[in-house]
Amino acid sequence: MIVELFSHNVDSILEIYASDFKDGWNRGQLLSAFSSGRFVSFAVKKNDKIVSVITCSVSFEEADLEGIVTLKEHKNKGYAKALIEHLIAFLKEKKVEKLFLEVREGNLSAINLYKKVGFNQISIRKKYYQNGENALIMVKEI
Q1: What is the pLDDT along the chain (142 residues), one digit of tens a residue?
Q2: Residue 54, class by beta-carbon neighbours within 10 Å (0-12 exposed, 13-18 middle, 19+ buried)?
Q3: CA nearest 43: which of 95, 100, 4, 99?
Q4: Residues in contact with 59: Cβ distance below 8 Å, sequence separation at least 6, in sequence order
Q5: H/E segment holding residue 12
């Protein structure tokens, strides 16, 4: 089941992020993002437990997918794809035209997923991550 998350769910988001997302946001950043009114988050819940989370900043006709993480024991079950598709439907209702994201150049499983749901690479940010890894910039026309 996909549910929307809010500022009172920040600790749950951080818990999922910590499981597999080294460059995720901290508590203050998430609370600030939620308070801006231009931030959304959705989660897959199984047996009342959040197993996958997606976060997104929305700015008029464009949006940025900020993060998507699935707990290791729940990977490869289609949860990330379902969350992306849910987010895209939500953004379409909001008249958002483009969804952007950054992804580690070496994260081939994520890159393949993004391509599968219609994202295209438009740029590379050299040495974007703390460890010096490049980021691929991708966009999906909605």
Answers
A1: 999 999 999 999 999 988 887 667 889 999 999 999 999 999 999 999 999 999 999 999 999 999 999 999 999 999 999 999 999 999 999 999 999 999 999 999 999 999 999 999 999 999 999 899 999 999 999 9
A2: buried
A3: 4
A4: 38
A5: helix 10-20
Domains of the chain, with CATH numbers?
2-100 (3.40.630.30)
Dihedral of the alpha carbons of 133, 39, 16, 97, in degrees to the nearest 10 = -60
Cβ neighbour number for residue 135 with a 10 Å cutoff: 19
Q: How far is residue 107 from each of residues 41, 112, 113, 133, 136, measured CA to CA in Å?
A: 22, 9, 10, 10, 10
Positions marked active-site: 102, 114
